[in-house]
Specification:
Radius of gyration: 16 Å
Strand order of the largest sheet: 1-2-3-4
Shape: globular
Largest sheet: 4 strands, antiparallel
Structural class: alpha/beta
Order of helices and strands: HEEEEEHEEHEHH
Length: 189
């Protein structure tokens, strides 16, 4: 994940709150996730403790074609959920929504509290309800056909949504890694 700009010394403290992990010694039944990045979907309990609603996993092997597994994997039978729902708490006017967990983390590190949808086709209608109370929802989408379809769907469902497209072939993370944090903010003006 160093090539995604999430593990270097300059962001180590910032990314720690997302509690990303590495599956070195998987639990029984979780062997397919060995060597993958573990992405916990964190929730805060009423007594202020952390809990994990679910986990997703991302392949880290360079050059992997993902023929025997997906680039991202969910636990069997697990429904799509919003990632980083803690971003919904304490942000009065604006919120971001991104296509994927890594993009949501990246946008949040850029100062835009952002939730993530686990893939361009994982949007569920009930995800819209917590987003309706914001003055603006920044829909940050990948610069590809799937990303544009994702944005089109959200812009139709959220009256407070504003589309923020990435350059062709890029996503939020690749834009920030290649051009810096300010590049994302510039696309939002």
């Amino acid at each position: 994940m160093a090539n995604r700009g999430l593990l270097g010394p300059s962001v180590k403290d910032e990314t720690a709150k997302f509690r990303l992990g590495y599956v070195a010694d998987p639990l029984p039944g979780h062997e397919p996730y060995r060597g993958m990045l573990a992405i916990p979907y964190l929730r805060s309990t009423l007594d202020g403790q952390w809990s994990v609603a679910t986990m997703r996993f991302r392949c880290l092997r360079e050059g992997c074609e993902h023929t025997d597994h997906g680039k991202y994997m969910s636990l069997p039978g697990d429904p799509p959920r919003l990632f980083n729902t803690l971003a919904l708490v304490g942000n009065d006017d604006e919120i971001g929504i991104a296509e994927g967990e890594i993009d949501a983390i990246t946008a949040t590190l850029c100062g835009i509290p952002t939730v993530g949808v686990p893939g361009a086709d994982a949007w569920r209608r009930h995800f819209r309800e917590p987003l309706l109370g914001y003055a603006r929802v920044w829909v940050m989408h990948d610069g590809d056909k799937a990303g544009r379809m994702f944005a089109h769907k959200l812009l139709a469902e959220l009256p407070n949504a504003v589309g923020v497209g990435m350059p062709d072939g890029q996503d939020v993370n690749s834009l920030v890694v290649s051009h810096g944090r300010a590049a994302l903010r510039e696309r939002m003006t």
